[in-house]
Amino acid sequence: MPASGRMTRSYTANTPSLGGGRPFTRRPLSGIRQKLSRPTTVTSFGVTSACQTRPASRQTRFGLSCQAKWALLNKQVVASVQRRETAERLEHDMSTWMRERQSLGRRLARVKRRLAREEVRLTSAEESGKESSQMERLRTRVQQSHEQV
Known about the structure:
Elements: H1 31-37, E1 41-42, E2 48-49, H2 56-148
Antiparallel strand pairs: 1-2
Domain KIF21A/B second helical: 66-148
GO cellular component, one term: microtubule
InterPro entries: KIF21A/B_hel_2
């Protein structure tokens, strides 16, 4: 007995206590234990895959299943990325259109103000032109009246 007080059992090959002199061999695992104890491999994409650890008889069927799952996952990821890119492009276009609309609104306001100033100036010029023509008519009348006198 060891110093710790626990009973330990040593498994050594060719021990008569384990079955009459037969070498000790482990029984193959089955079910979930076999699945959990199977080593996984890491693919180049960083995803662990059990496809390569299956027996050769089930390799093709499981491989196709694994490929189909991978293709479906890949398709979903690509669709999600495309949706996000489309949304980002739409947001970018919307912001561009909003900026364009704001700048066009500012330009329209400037043109309206300029047009109002021009109208005021033109009306005042026309009035001054009218006044000057009226003044000339009055002067001619005055001159005519002076000539008559």
